[in-house]
Fold these 2 entries.
Entry 1:
Amino acid sequence: MSGGETSVSEADGNGGIMGQQKNLEGYVGFANLPNQVYRKSVKRGFEFTLMVVGESGLGKSTLINSLFLTDLYSPEYPGPSHRIKKTVQVEQSKVLVKEGGVHLLLTIVDTPGFGDAVDNSNCWQPVIDYIDSKFEDYLNAESRVNRRQMPDSRVQCCLYFIAPSGHGLKPLDIEFMKRLHEKVNIIPLIAKADTMTPEECQQFKKQIMKEIQEHKIKIYEFPETEDEEEMKMVRKIKDRLPLAVVGSNTIIEVNGKRVRGRQYPWGVAEVENGEHCDFTILRNMLIRTHMQDLKDVTNNVHYENYRSRKLAAVTYNGVDNNKNKGQLTKSPLAQMEEERRDHVAKMKKMEQEMEQVFEMKVKEKLQKLRDSEVELQRRHEQMKKNLEAQHKELEEKRRQHEEEKASWEAQQRILEQQKLDASRTLEKNKKKKIF
Amino acid sequence: MAASEVDVFANEEKRNLELGGHVGFDSLPDQLVSKSVAQGFCFNILCVGETGIGKSTLMNTLFNTTFENEEASHYEHEVQLRPQTYDLQESNVNLKLTIVHTVGFGDQINKEESYKPILEYIDAQFENYLEEELKIKRSLFNYHDTRIHICLYFIAPTGHSLKSIDLVTMKKLDSKVNIIPVIAKADTVSRSELDKLKIKVMSELVSNGVQIYQFPTEDEAVAEINSSMNTHLPFAVVGSIEDVKVGNKMVKARLYPWGSVQVENENHCDFVKLREMLLRVNMEDLREQTHARHYELYRRCKLEEMGFKDTGPDSQSFSLQETYEAKRKEFLVELQRKEEEMRQMFVNKVKETEAELKEKEKELHERFEQLKRMHQEEKKNLEEKRRELEEEMNAFNRRKVAAETLMGQALQGCSQQPFKKDKDKKNFFSLPSACSLTSGRNLN
């Protein structure tokens, strides 16, 4: 499968070989590369798919509107929450938003009906199926012979809304997160945070994180950076997980400022006030700093997991993967090549064995033939001998008989002669007597 | 698959929405860029040109450093490619640069195969990438990309046009890699000669259908400079890493008795243009073209060669799983067929041999049947003879007995005549007739 190795000498710089460090003695110009990358990416435009999951009434639609400062769900395009649903649905809305010359195709995936039924067993299944089907679409697009654009509709982030009960995670929450944490980046959020006091919220958060750890749920993790400043920020965020949010579609005037908030008789809960809730942190993290990382983790981790599982299944036809772990570094085609080689070797062996058996049988048969030939020959010889002996015997008997006969006949002749003489004498005597 | 089970209400129209404030996703390009910078960049240059034409010098000049390169001899009996990888850094940008030189290019007497090692090397890098891409467990995001992003083709400044090896080589490579032709050692050509040469070279490339790299003009930011540069191709370059004092500055130049050729003086040569285009303006486009065009073409051809199709005979598109499953089925069927073939061959062999052996057996039996028959006959003969003898013996015995009895009676009659009764007389008289009858007969 590889060519050109005859003419290429060693050290071909593959697989992360360290190159020689060289110092530049003057202006070269490739430092401009990032700008080139920047320009091209702006020209291409960006895509992002965000999924929101949670029981109805937790303020998902409101939060989306607040995050993107737009009316994704409006009277003309009512959100799924206003529609009647009998089963869990998965609905997507695509919107194109522009800001500072940057185009973003935003897909919001909503899951109305989740957790609303009396029996919620398997209500996560449609969600899993949706995510898998998007992976499948991408896998097929990526695997085509003719690839042109590869539209990416894979779910890159899942905001999971936890009801503010104040006590801990519900079994449904745990079940859902356990099943989806290896398919999508999960960011758990405490919804309607304005129904808890800061202390209650703190307790609640601690409890939730404890349970998440207990159940070994892998929620989205912020990547380590080398930058000190960034690391400080990341650590601050980590301390406040899960983020407690409040969303609002209404703008209220507070102290002369127009803010998004929720008006209560006792005051206004401001969405963007860091002391009231963690909304700002969420927005900054989700949109302003980690959107690209969410996409990268989806592409490099979750999608790759899906893909390797899918291809391994195809290659091994359901054979237990653990046996073949070491072989996953091959492509299915290389795998088939190897199988073919094995098969050729097996066939050769089989052929040899069959050949051996055949030879042996032929030898046996020939030997048998020879043996029976010898046997028959022997018998023939014996019979011949027998016959000869009998012949001889007969000869002897005949000879004896002849001898006996000859001698007896000779005797008889003498006797006859005597008889004749005797009868003549008797006749003579008779004649004499009569006279 | 899952799509049929899930009730996906796809709101497919893409609505344009107005934002009521600053959301902040305009930082997306910055996020992308900072990630790329953190990862580092790869760039791979292939230099094709005769020995001594100035490839190494140009690289040193271009990157303002000294890349170690042993001088090549003219006696290589085939073209070899020597890649070298370097880690460079300019401001915050880390670049893993691989420079591949063709050693011995143009030195052989028979240059017909000269382009082959180059083609093979380029294909091999595509192949490595494709292999990685097809693996079940793969890591593309930290794969060291060795695919050639740019091929600088060095044209000798002597002569009035392209050499035939230049045309042949560039024609073979133009669908595989981005080619920028450069006229080397431009300081050995006068201005007018250079202009003529450039025009001639470009027209020859056009008339032979060689596709060289065009600087992109879609992006407004760079459209102007790129389109103007396109008209200056091929770039006439001079390389030098020696510093020469010109005026009160130290500049890179080549010192001749009649003056100094300043590398970075745009009146003297196109070096600056090359550097601008190659590194400062279009590096990312070169990388993109390599991946999106040249590599895709290679991949498509390779997959088609291996029998992959996007659509089946009934124009239904295959999913990857279906394709692999189909391939696998085909593969298993073939293996089975081979097995069957072998078995069949064996069965035939066995049948043949059995037939032979049966023949032999038959022969043997026939032979022995024959012998048996012979035996039977002999036995019969013997039996008859025996019977004959017995009969004879019996007859003889009877004769003997008869004769003896007769004799006995005769003797009795002779010695005891008076005592003979008439019965005896009668007996005596009746006997001889019997006696003589038999004796007469027996004497035969």
Entry 2:
Amino acid sequence: MQKKWVVFFCVFWWQGSNDSLPSAEAVMFLKFSLRSVFYGAGGGNDIQWCFSQVKGAVDDDVAEADIISTVEFNHSGELLATGDKGGRVVIFQQEQENKTQSHSRGEYNVYSTFQSHEPEFDYLKSLEIEEKINKIRWLPQKNAAQFLLSTNDKTIKLWKISERDKRPEGYNLKEEDGRYRDPTTVTTLRVPVFRPMDLMVEASPRRIFANAHTYHINSISINSDYETYLSADDLRINLWHLEITDRSFNIVDIKPANMEELTEVITAAEFHPNSCNTFVYSSSKGTIRLCDMRASALCDRHSKLFEEPEDPSNRSFFSEIISSISDVKFSHSGRYMMTRDYLSVKIWDLNMENRPVETYQVHEYLRSKLCSLYENDCIFDKFECCWNGSDSIVMTGSYNNFFRMFDRNTKRDITLEASRENNKPRTVLKPRKVCASGKRKKDEISVDSLDFNKKILHTAWHPKENIIAVATTNNLYIFQDKMN
Amino acid sequence: MGEEEGLHQTQLLDTMFVRGLKRKCIDGEEDIEGTLAGIKAIPSYNLQRQSLLDMSLVKLQLCHMLVEPNLCRSVLIANTVRQIQEEMTQDGTWQMINTQSTGQTSLDRLVSTDILCRSSREQAEGKQVPGYSNFNKDFEDDQTQDSSETMSTASSVQAPRNLQSNVWEMENAQENRGNFQKSLDQIFETLENKSPNSVEDLFSEVDNSYYDLDTMLTGMMSNTKMGHCDGLETFSSPTTTTSNSNCKSDLNELDHIVEILVES
């Protein structure tokens, strides 16, 4: 509140001291300051987020198979893929922009749905292998078809998604029902011609990369050479060639000789966006290791170790658990990387190992509730995070279907909610606020009334535009910025 | 224990851990001389820490049997348990907890045993134990893959604490630690081997008195009775299956195999 008046006074005082007419710069300044003051804390350059679409069932009763487990835009942003607990992949395609409707960008409609993974049973261990899709990663487009990698706990598959909009017609060698005609009855030579047909999108598995992981796969990442990729499970990271399915190289192995000594696991891994020899992996102890594959075949010795010293005043029995990193993502530039632990998002400069350059608190009000969250297992929730196309804003999810955005330049943050209540397109989302303690203001929500069953773990940002995809338990929300 | 009390307990725990500062006597002399007094002065911290320990052990033991347990979660919980254990050893309060008895009826004890020793199939069916309040009712209906969650909330904080204190009604703190360490080791062995046999081992060898009760409950006759002492004797080295465990685990395995055959 005070900020508003300070700005006003400054501007009018400045104006008052200059008797001349306001210059263009002054007007600009006035406009900018007024706008930022009145719109309050905004996520970056005054982006106003509007509801665009929501996909998924309306029921409150969630079918377990429909729980969304991963969301990913492709490199152009035209396609948006989601994976669910039932092993299905649904791909949405953005409509071509409607010239008449300049107010909104194209909508995303279902393009293809297919069953990527099926449940399996490991007979040797008498355990089920879940079909839940843990990660989807798109390959850059090289021809008319699209390719993506999808993985469950044990097996990675390369899927080809291709369109078919023509079919050959005019064969005269077969009857209507498909039986071959008696050759003696064929008297003319007819060349079939392609005729248009309804668009059909087909997905076919082109490669299956199996039997390389003893533990559960948590990450896959395609290398910038577009020929290799890595897959990481709790204790090992393997390097694959996209063409070769019967072999992979093990590049990281942190399994101790004696499993009783196990205290740390790998939680996420990613290739550097530009250096094809560099990758990072994060651990359950809050460390990130950067490895260079040129150094040795087995990258057990890191090139860099990123770790922030613990704050002694915040030490508790849960310190280690909340320091466990659930996601690591390089910036598009490759200069920075972002990590997500239970309560915060940290931005690291690859050149500085001893502490992050920026830290953003996602839901610090949960720090006093850690014991309850430990009891109900919420403390083990793995939130993901993502960058916008220009690396200026980062986004992550929280509870109560809230998600948060942090603008790295303006240092402002915003909390928004993904709910069907703001259903009308181009409705600007209202910022939300959680009241940690004390008197609850109007429109604020108290910590105790947060719904911990409604968690946003997966979010994605369009690589070029201000379009975001936010997954609640079983619904996918698409928000866009308000276009004027 | 009513729902409100259970909720109160967790809230206490929350406030306890909010600052994260260890509330132990800084002055060493005070610590040695007035241990009992010290405990009386801050009884809630130790109780809460014990609750956390029990909660953690329950979480570790009630791994979802049908699907491989989440290794990251198990490791984090195990590390928390180790941390508590270390602190308790330093405090010298390890022995203190044995003297606390909260006078639970034997019936409760039987019931709580039932939870731990029930087969995985029954656990998956999510049987709620009557008389145990589920103070996180929201999560009762949570249908995530981990059915252990149902069990974790069903066996509320009260039960495990009594469970464990009764288990560790032993004189020797050393043996406690040994047994305890053994259960941690076994958990990891189990995670490593992931065979039904070793999982049964986990249940049977953490506390054998439970096992006896369980056989009574399920009406199965076992060939040899595994006494309390046997558990202690074997604490120094992880053992392979005993005849008892064989009996029970074989039956479970058989059930499991039949299930697969029927379903496929």
